Amino acid sequence: MNDLQDLHILVTRPEPQGQELCRQITARGGQAINFPVIAFSPPPDLCAFTSGIAALGDQDWLIFISPQSVHASTAEITRVWPRLPDRVRIAATGAGTAKALRDAGLKVTACPHADWSSEGILAMPEFQSVGGQKIAVLRGQGGRELIDQALAARGARIMTIIAYERVLPRTDVNPVLALLRENRIDVTVCTSFEGARNLKTLLGEAGWPFIRKIPLIVMSERIKSLAQDLGFQTIWVTRNASQAAILERCRKKD
Questions:
Q1: Could you give the CA distance from residue 236 to residue 254 in angstroms, rounded to a whole number?
Q2: Prior bond to 16 cis, omega within 30?
Q3: Half-sphere exposure of residue 68: CA atoms within 13 angstroms, side-chain side
Q4: Cα gap 75→65, rounded to integer Å
């Protein structure tokens, strides 16, 4: 299948998802430019992180916000809990997070079918009547607190575990600047608002006049609105956060 033939796509997803998306773009005939705009570092409070992991066996639910929340925490989880108690159920905000959990040997009990987001989790029947339940939310420093706040408002006892911190990567932007000047980027993929913001920051005054005019693919209407506030001019929204949906949106020109 060569449905992306000659399309030059700037991929800003963090690793390892970015490399996998680039591989799929190349397999479909496209030209992928791998340019991760988010890097990850250990949690700022390691003691709080390890204390939270030690308390997981007392929870009713563990909610993982992203694949990175899985990658950053499962080594410590399996060290402390070779087997979690059967009463502990696990939820993922999307298919990518669910896959990361299964790959780590953890059983996923709940995952939205279509709306792969915090809103999707909150709409699930499992999280409507949670009064008195103990729920651990594993996420990154500075991430959205919507799940924590909404479930607390519904009466749940929330334990937030910060598993990692997002940082601006140190990267050579000159190859991307050269492509922009040569008009050799057709589409940009950003999977989070922070990614869009970091892209603008990294490219700076030299690259912003170019990148803001190139169609930007994002995962939700919320991110689209925030990216518009940053100044991106043309923004396309995928049907969900899957690789397939991103590739599908790359093919559309509207």
A1: 8
A2: yes
A3: 21
A4: 17
Instruction: pLDDT tens for the chain, 254 residues: list them.
Output: 678 988 999 999 988 888 999 999 999 999 999 999 999 999 999 999 999 999 999 999 999 999 999 999 999 999 999 999 999 999 999 988 999 999 999 999 999 987 888 899 999 999 999 999 999 999 999 878 899 999 999 999 999 999 999 999 999 999 999 999 999 999 999 989 999 999 999 999 999 999 999 999 998 899 999 999 999 999 999 988 788 889 999 887 55
What is 41-166's CATH topology?
Rossmann fold (3.40.50)
CB count, 10 Å around CB of 201?
11
Whether this model's pTM surpasses 0.85? no
Both structure tokens of 133: 């339940």
Residue 35, judged by CB atoms within 10 A of its CB (0-12, 13-18, 19+), counts as buried
CATH topology of domain 8-38+169-251: Rossmann fold (3.40.50)
CATH fold match for the domains 8-38+169-251 and 41-166: yes
Give the integer Cα–Cα distance in Å for 254 and 244: 18
Contacts of 58 (CB under 8 A, 6+ apart): 134
Taking the domains of the chain in order of start, what are their residue ranges?
Answer: 8-38+169-251, 41-166
